[in-house]
Design goal:
about 80 residues; mainly alpha; elongated; membrane; transmembrane; Transmembrane protein; transmembrane helix
């Protein structure tokens, strides 16, 4: 998966270089080419492809969590307010 991503970034980088060095090209056009053809779509694809791994890691962390046996302090350090009778 990362090899394809690396290859795609190389292609997009070469497109951006060609845009910047073309006689009627601009550096701003090269930046937009790199971001809109490369960085943004690739970040979305890698995030979506990494979802199953993040889900497995979260389930593994939940399964290995130790239950509270009462020896730990509560998370809220402020005691609740007593009701007045």
């Amino acid at each position: 998966m990362y090899l394809v991503a690396l290859a795609w970034m190389y292609v997009v980088l070469m497109m951006a270089v060609a845009e910047a060095t073309a006689p009627n090209g601009t550096v701003l056009g090269a930046v937009f080419t790199f971001v809109l053809y490369g960085a943004l779509p690739l970040s979305i694809v890698l995030y979506l492809m990494g979802s199953p791994a993040r889900r497995r890691a979260r389930k593994r962390a939940e399964a290995s969590a130790q239950p509270d046996d009462g020896s730990l302090t509560p998370r809220d350090p402020v005691a609740p307010e007593r009701e007045k009778l």
